[in-house]
Amino acid sequence: MSSEFKHWKLINEIQVTSNITLHKYVSLKTGLTLAISNVPTPIVSGTFIVATEPFDNSGIPHILEHLIFHGSDDYPYHGILDVITSRCLGELTNAWTEISNTSFTLTTAGSEGFLSVLPVYLDHLLFPTLTESGFLTEIYHINSEGGDGGVVYNEIQMCENNAWEITNREISKRLYQGSGFQWDSGGLTKGIRSVTLDKVKEYHKKVYLPENLLICICGRINSNEVFKSLTGFENKILTNLKKTNSNFSNQNFVRPFSNPIPKFLKSVNLTIDFPDDEGNSTGIVRIAYRIGNYSNFHNYLSHEIIWDYLALSPISPLVREMVDIEDPFCSSISVEYLEYSITSCVISFSGVPLNKLNLIEKKFVNILEAVAQKGIDEKRIKDLIKLNIRSHLNSLERKPNSVLSSVLSLDFVFGSHNNNNFSQLEELLKPFKFYQNLLNHPKSYWINLIKFSILEQPKIVIVGNPSHKLSIQLLQSNKERIEKRKEKIGVEKLKEYGLNLENAIKKNSLSIPTNVLQQFKQPNVSKIQLIPLITINNNKKNGNNDSNNNKGNNNKEKGKGKEKEKEKEKEKEKEKEKEKEKEKEKEKEKEKEKEKEKEKEKEKEKEKEKEKEKEKEKEKEKEKEKEKEKEKEKEKEKEKEKEKEYEKEKETEQKQKQKLLNYFQKDGITIDSIPFWIQLDQIPSYFVDINVVIDTSNLPNKYRPFLELLRELIFKTPLYLENNKTISHKVLVEKMERMTVNYSANIGLLASSEFEAGEFAQLFVIRMRGEIDQYQKIIKWMKRILWFTRFPAKRLRIATKTLLNQIDETKRDVEFMAWSTLKYLIFQKNKSNHVTNNVLIQKNFLSKFLNDLQQNESKSVQKFEKFRQLLFNNISNFKIQVASDFYKIKNPQIPWVKNNFIPKNLFDFEKFPLKSFIPSQFLPIQSSLLRNKLDHVHKNDNNNMTNDNNKHGSNSNNNSNSNDNTNSNGNGNENTNSNGNGNGNTNSNNQNQNNEKKSNDDDSANTETKNDMILASNDLQNTIKNKVIIIGFASIESGQLCHALPSIDNFENEDLPALMIAIEYLTKPESSLWKTIRGEGLAYDTSLTLLIEHGYIYFDIDSAINPVQALKQASKSIKNFIQNNQELNKDEIQAAKNRISCWNIQELETPEKVTRESLRDHFRGVKDFSIKNLKLIHAVSEKKILFVMKKYLSNLFNGNSQIVLIVNSSKIEKTIKDLQTIGMHSIHFNNLDDFNL
Ligand SMILES: [Zn+2]
Fold first, then answer.
1. CB 1092: neighbour CB atoms within 10 A?
2. Measured in angstroms, how far is the CA atom of residue 600 from the centroid of ligand 1?
3. How many CB atoms lie within 10 A of CB 895?
4. pTM for the whole thing?
5. 994: alpha, beta or left, given left = phi > 0 and alpha = psi -120 to 50?
6. Over pLDDT 70: what percentage of the chain?
7. What is the pLDDT of residues 984-1025, one digit of tens each?
8. How far, in Å, from the CA of 468 to the mean position of ligand 1?
9. Closest CA relative to residue 839, chosen from 863, 819, 864
10. 705 burial via Cβ count (<10 Å: 0-12, 13-18, 19+)
């Protein structure tokens, strides 16, 4: 360490895993704590943690979290952090408030940008401006109509009355009475209304101190460089301390949470109401108790293990007896831990039928008593301990930053400072010793834990009861409160409030001087080190099969060679043109000289001389320019060298591919002899990750809604093996717990939640991930899951009921329901998994299936079995991705050989030849509602974009559905893309017909299809076309709006990079849209998102007090921008490009993400999409951005896009009228059930 950084005292050095080392320092000058974890990832992440104890429900810690971003002493510009972070290849900043601390994040690609932003960010934390104008817009204000507003106020209002928040508050209040943990750190609306800026400032002064700040950094970064970047900041702290005549270890600072916590001695039982739309759906029950001192980590882990045993999976006693039964007590059980200085455990039962609400506690106690009496399954306890060890390692590989920063934060707030025991950190990061210890505990240890540490502990039991009455009351009282206020304040004062707000908005929008921005230089992307991936596959149809690598690759190289030659030719032409221009210039100069000579004759000699001198100077300048040109040429040469390097890299990649192939292909087995599509991704990892991806496109539509039930059930059902052996669903779950770190089935790529499809919705994905030594076993069980699972009536009934109970819970989530409704409208009804998997379809579908199961059990079981076979018995619909460090596996090819992986006699391979997965099949299956989408865009271009909403309505009706296959993108250069688009649609139509034919073979197909699934699509579409769908909810105060506009659905579309920049440019913080919506406190948030694989651009407004006003302002802001040909700000374009680059690199952050990208690329139809996009993004011109803005966004908010708006039921009438004033027509539904079209 260089001597100038000596004051950074190293207090911990921990080797966390073989490739993660952590160093923790304390500054002896300022008291700052700094932890640097070296992790081999291209992303550098920072988490800055301040311990913030709340003292009431006014939400001051949360308020500060927001105000910190409104400028600092040295950088007094609202929002500057996001602007400079973007310039420095960073993601937008983020922050959150927990009960114990407030955390702020900074994430950049590479370390260069991180080091420039770090001191500025910290300046914001310790020296924020905390202005009145920031407080009014960001926190709270009374508007000119007497209502409440402000970003934080909206945020809290949105959630403070939901069942979880209400019960959370009761738990904290009673379990931790007399300490800071009893409060709500986010604040309650009542508290926020009463808070003042002075109180906030006072709190900041007491708590935001260097000795109370922990800086965690994770990634590839050099400690000395971090120290160096902190020098100025530390000096500033010292200067400030001198001013106040104090030093950092001043006696006045009371470390948060240092007061003792009063004991919790007496159990509490209570029932509380929470507002609910229906009031007759389901409730929740929560049981909480204290575990003990946080420093007793061994005890804490024991509780974690015993709760995994009791409630983790379908074989856990609580789940087995309360959820996984015919008449369930609840739809799910979850366990969470309050990690404070005294830890607690909260067990939650959700989706509880009303008649069971009061039975939960008794049942819970009975089950635990029975376990304590009958004894514990020791083997399973041990499995679970081992699972916890694996999961810890897995988390460190998958999300190192979040694991490390949360452990460091716990240790910082509750650990080392309070008892000065630094060794605790290492134990928390490497808890293996404790786990080993737990493995040796006898049965009696666990039984005593249940008996004495759980059952005999004082508890809080809260029964949460849904109440329609309460939701009405809450709204009423709020209304009355505002009316009273208006009367009290009077008109004049309200006007003043309005003016104050206007002034505050003006003050906040002070722009950042360019010279300030230019201090932050653009980092060099090429310096960033990526995680290496080598991928091989046996894709035969595409001709780039890796086993044939010589041929395939030659082709590729030739292709590239041609491109390069073309580029070279272009360059030559350019050079010729330049030479011509130079000649022209020379001629011009000659002419000028002649003229000058004439002039000279007229002028005096002295002047001549002067002019000559001037000319000489000019010539000198010209020479300088020539030198510059030479330099440019040198740069070009450098670039050429880079290209050569790139080619070398390609060569080594080829060698590595060959090496992997050689390793895999042994004993006469080749990758080609594997009779299904397989892709091997070689990656540095401790784990093996297997994804079986099944294309559901050809599934007959009437079976499609079963996918949700299959997802729910496939890992919880019995197996019937080839040798007539049966494996119960319990054993299956046990095996999974023993082998994997996680396993899942999903609709679409990436984990999706219930009733929501992930990316590429037409795929069904089964995934298992485990340690490398489990490779053979995992594949064996994957085979069993795919072909030997069976679904008896009882299992089907239980799963169906569980899902139905979950639907009641889901329907309370307004945001989720708004999106579900929108997807229901914009994707094809029977064909798209976005719709058939949708909560709006599933409720009826599952109720009917449950009824069928009761009426005619065997027929229903057969129907599901038919569905299973259709999905799994055609291996040409499979794509299998295996990601691991293959060199650590002996004979990795053997389990995949035909007779090992595929059950004998199951398939006739001649009948099912291997086909290619054609990416175009995964294009979105949109409904025809908005089908004539881009025609309209084209028209707009020609019409100079009129801004008449009514006219648009009639326009689009005339065009409707007529010509899907016309060159919809217009503009000539888009032929291939729009054809691709048209073909996509035609494909899906053909498949539709095929499916119908197939369905005809099935006796019940016709009638059932009509009854179950087919919606009166034409009528529906004519009714809703170009209309806003308004749905009433009784229990919400602010509105939720989402909006879809058809857009690019092809990952190779040449407009794509420009459109991504355009969207980012328009919606970034401090853009006019952002300022209008969030900056003025009209809504909590707004966003514009392009989902290419959906083929839509989505716009949404979250939690708006007046959503139509917000919509109007948003529309005005974007249209103004596009129509007035506003000039784009070069710095901001660069920032938008950099942010997108950062996201692209983030997609490659960990080994798991790298292989996930590799799988996505397959369905995108573009290899290395993220890396290619990086290059394309930076080449986009300003002109092109303006062009795509007009082409794709001028139609936003007009007809031919779809809007769903959820508002409070009492506001429907007003909303309809408000929409009319901005030329929008609407259809309303009083509640969700009415909407079920
Ligand atoms: Zn917030």
1. 21
2. 74
3. 18
4. 0.80
5. alpha
6. 84
7. 232 333 333 333 333 333 333 333 333 222 333 445 555 666
8. 28
9. 819
10. buried
